[in-house]
Amino acid sequence: MCRFLVYKGSKPIILSKLMTEPSHSILTQSYDSRLRLDTRRNVNGDGFGVGWYTEAHLGADPCIFTSTLPAWNCVNLARLTPKICSHLIFGHVRATTEGALAESNCHPFQHNTLMFMHNGNIGSWKYVKRPLADSLNDQWYLGVKGGTDSEWAFALFLDTLEKEGVDPGAEPEGGFGPKVLRRAMKKTIAKINAFVKAVPAEHHLADVETRSLLNFAITDGHSVVVTRYVSSKTDEAASLYYSSGTDWVEGNIKGHFKMERRDKASDLVLVASEPLTFEKHNWLQVPTNTTLTIHDQIISIKEIKDDFWDPRAERSQEFASEHGLVTKAPGGLTTPLTSEIPTPPEIPFAAVKMPSLLKGALTEVDSAGGF
């Protein structure tokens, strides 16, 4: 399937430092996703997209560039990315499962200030599409331009936001807020699960795939909410990692980038389906069936407690692997759902000795409080 990348920083970064220059950049992953345990193919060549937010005087909505060309074969991507800076970036390379090869099917999708992308699939989609579409208000139903389950999921998110009493077309100062985005995202997932659950009985099907892989990312230009989710108690979700630090720099070897941590701050945060570096201590795995929220450069991870939440479950990677959505992680640490972050051994980078990994950078808040 696909790969995506999120950057949220206290200062802008040049797009090429994420999209094209790293030796395992998202562009490289489009043609050489060698970390993926894919039983079908290791290519994400069915188009790509990049979205970023500009200076305030240019407007609150993001700028989005999409193409049906493979990312590695788009000369305009190579020309544009070294000349664009942003503090919030979404990048996506596509391997199609639903929808034709068309720009209208390339992520990220956008409505006013909101930007959305997806890695995964909705189970039993051909049976779910009609009831999902019928549940939408006309504005969101008519707003769908492509044929992907991902864009329909975004329409469902917008509809859910509106039914929560929030106008998705508004431009509130400081955005909608992380609580609002996270609540709408969790309700969107719950609605998808309900549509899928109804399929076997309504269509008299005994053997139909009802598992969904829902790695979603949504932002309003201020807060970011990302999910790592599978509608199963026994399967692992599609891979998702994050890294934070004070600077993203290129080492002595061209294309070899690393996350520097001069203190406990998280001045920049990266979230990616597949890590951009091969430094084991740079990345932590997002736990299955959780949301990761970035707000004011603070990371919060919260569990999605529904029928498929079981922190003690033994989960298999077979389902995600069959869909090309599992990586052999250069890391392997999984962020625990506790208030303390594990402190791996300090590892030197040249003459720089790194402080404890992410300690203090992630704020774990229970479901009753915090942002």
Specify the overall morphology: globular
List the strand order in the largest sheet: 3-2-4-1-12-9-13
Radius of gyration: 19 Å
**How many distinct beta strands?**
17
List the SSEs and their pairings.
Blueprint: E1 3-14, H1 16-19, H2 26-31, E2 48-52, E3 63-67, H3 75-80, E4 85-93, E5 109-111, E6 114-121, H4 125-134, H5 138-143, H6 149-163, H7 178-197, H8 199-203, E7 213-219, E8 224-228, E9 241-245, E10 247-250, E11 257-260, E12 268-272, E13 284-285, E14 290-295, E15 298-303, H9 318-322, E16 348-349, E17 352-353
Antiparallel strand pairs: 1-4, 1-12, 2-3, 2-4, 5-6, 6-7, 7-8, 8-14, 9-12, 9-13, 10-11, 14-15, 16-17
Q: Could you explain how this protein is built, in words?
A:
This protein is of the alpha+beta class. The chain has nine helices and 17 strands. The chain has helices at residues 16-19, 26-31, 75-80, 125-134, 138-143, 149-163, 178-197, 199-203, 318-322; strands at residues 3-14, 48-52, 63-67, 85-93, 109-111, 114-121, 213-219, 224-228, 241-245, 247-250, 257-260, 268-272, 284-285, 290-295, 298-303, 348-349, 352-353. The longest helix has 20 residues, at 178-197. The two termini are 32 Å apart.
